[in-house]
Amino acid sequence: MKLFFKILGRSFAVVFLLSIGLTLFSLLTPDDTAAKTICGNYALVKENSRSTYIINTENGEQAIPSIIISYSDNQNFIAAKQTEVPPSDVKPDYTTYSYWLIDTESGEITGPLANEADFTAFCSQHNLTFGEWLGS
Prior knowledge:
The structure is a single chain. By secondary structure, the protein is α+β, with helices and mostly antiparallel strands. It folds into two domains: 1-30; 35-135, no CATH class. Helix content is 27%, strand content 34%. The strands form two sheets. It has a five-stranded antiparallel beta sheet with strand order 8-7-6-5-9. Strands 1-2-3-4 form a four-stranded antiparallel beta sheet, with no helix packed on it. The protein is elongated and about 85 Å long. The N and C termini lie far apart (57 Å). The model has no long low-confidence stretch (mean pLDDT 85).
């Protein structure tokens, strides 16, 4: 019986020390807001569910504001669906959004385009096609 309590006490001490170590590790790990490169000098930055935007990695400036819902790219353009960040106590409306386009070669940003018809017209005018839309 004495051996049982000795083993139980040591097991508890190991688990306790391990939990402290894991807690410290989680506090000291780098932030998960790393930018995900999309195309050219542009990257998607997701800080949290209310802060997802596209930046120009050359100058660090925000190219398209939060909240990016989804994006797609081809070799020269990035297309994004973006909704406005609501007040802090209101849930974002992901059903209403505008379209944005970035010409990755010139850096020209077009948007916000209010609806899909405007987006389609712009793409037709510039002979643009986009593949699969990726969620942010």
